Fold this sequence. Notes:
Elements: H1 2-9, H2 15-26, H3 32-39, H4 43-55, E1 59-62, E2 68-71, H5 74-98, E3 108-112, H6 114-127, E4 131-136, H7 144-153, E5 156-163, E6 172-179, E7 186-191, E8 195-202, E9 207-213, H8 216-239, H9 243-246, H10 255-263
Parallel strand pairs: 4-5, 5-6
Antiparallel strand pairs: 1-2, 3-9, 4-7, 7-8, 8-9
Amino acid sequence: MNKLIDLLKSTYFSENESIIYMYLLENPGQTVYEISKNIRLSRSSTYPIVDKMHQEGMLLLESGKKELYYAQDPKELLNTLDFKHNENMIKLKKEFEKVKIQPLKTPYFNLNGFDSILGKARTLLYESRDEVYMSTDLPLELFEDAFDFLNRKGVDVYIFTFSKTNYSKPNVFIFSHQISEPSSNRLMLVSDLNSVLVANFDPFRNEWQATATQNHLMISIVSEHIHHDIYLIKLKNAMNVSLFETYPELAIHTKAEQIGRKLLKTDDE
């Protein structure tokens, strides 16, 4: 009975309305006095509630020497509630159309600490429904159960990494530079082109920091970055030589470029 009362309260019933309805369902044909006495609610409080419930079709009234109240048949009640719900949804839709809604600013959430960042990454993975892009040198075993879960859902994961790895899952496609000991200091993850997480280890603070957002520009930038890394490594593998070695004129000689080229040096070099 308590469960039914809680469910009624979650629809259009107040707590006292829920109690009165359930009481009359089990004890039909009661006066207001009898109702108030048995549910331990004052008559002055019970009268307006019972009258309102009768007016709204939740209760039925039998007139005679005494006015006796009955609970509406549950099937009829559910039909009434369903109709009222649909009617209110239509009204809500019309009223919302009249409101001048201000554009929503997409928030950026900052996270600190490796465990909280890893937890956020795993949450995004578990919530993914379509496709995931990742760029990381972290051990992929950290996401093992999430990858298995996504495999059961039919969600593919595309990963760029500098790390040397033999990791294998049917739904995980890895594009690696196969560097033996890269520094595991970054993680980028895009979920369903709807959410993005960018994280790295800050050596000055000696801790992991991250930003998570649903900002479309940020999602687009990170998605393109990961795709371009994958395209470049596929070109390198197809040509069996670095793109810069084949086309040295591509270099623009920036500091970022120099750091990147040092990072790409393998142990054999």
